[in-house]
Amino acid sequence: MPSLGPPLSPEQLAQLPHDDRGPMLIGVSWGLAVVAAAFLALRVYCKHITKRRLWWDDWILIASRALIITSNALTTVLVNDFKLGKHNWDMDIYDRVRFYLVISSRATVIITAIVWAKTAFAVTLLRLTTGKTKAFVWFILVSMNIAMGFSAMVLWIQCQPLAKGWITDLPGTFWAPRRRWLILPISAYSAAMDFTLAILPWTFLPNLTLGDKDKIGISIAMSMGVIAGIVAIIKCVYLPGLGVGDSYDDVHLFIWDVTEATVTVVAACIPTLRVLLRDATQRPQSSRLSAIPDLSLISYRDLGVKNPNVAQELGMLPVEEVESGRSTQIGR
């Protein structure tokens, strides 16, 4: 929340800068939303052309993308109605209650979008792992949602009574006056989990009986979460200054959190997009099929895969249905 301070005289205002990052914030936020929508649409398209139904990870990503849209809508309200992106002395907070409700809602929504995007990738890994590795993924999934769930709700539960969080004139107390120092370790943990989830595929994919090129390609595709981790670290750098200085400077944090949500959605979609890349780089259909006449007889076990979901999820086989441990080619 910006610290507005006492009113300034016209003479004092004339000597101050009057820059505005609001239009940049809106442009970047909606531009990133388009990027997330494009990758998610391609993911759904790949599922369609490979005759696979949408699973939990797909629906969670769709929900995350919907929250990104909601967050951007709230950001647009903050910029248009309250002049967020300008310096504190140029902001127009004519309705403090509405301002605090909108900015708190926006924070809750974007944090939820981020953790749901990470959750979607973790759910994908649950389909591809077994034993202790699967249990570890469950630990990451649950602990990350608990930690970031608290981060998403802290703005609503930081006061006694609760309404003091958005009606600042109410008598009461803040139990979390330095909430940014509570959120910082949670954000750092989230970044660490991004790197952990990105590394996990390298623990089981090398065991597949595929060529080195395919192994590396799939592993890299499933490790794009590293980029989300880097973005999360950058966001952590800006967190200590949240709400203690000029709202003009807080725009960086707004941009980085929507960037983290978008990059996480994109990273979760990239492994599925291998299907499009494979089909675009391989030979035409007729020559490919003639070169591999018994492709329909390939079993997922022939690839060294214990779980048929691995072959199905990563596009390791052509368009197929995995039934009874065998892959059956359909119309390609």
TrEMBL record:
Membrane topology annotation: Multi-pass membrane protein
Cross-referenced Pfam families: Fung_rhodopsin (PF20684)
Cellular component aspect of the GO annotation: membrane
Keywords: Membrane, Transmembrane, Transmembrane helix
Subcellular location: Membrane
Domain Rhodopsin: 42-278
Protein name: Rhodopsin domain-containing protein
Alphabetical list of PANTHER family matching this protein: INTEGRAL MEMBRANE PROTEIN, PTH11-LIKE INTEGRAL MEMBRANE PROTEIN (AFU_ORTHOLOGUE AFUA_5G11245)
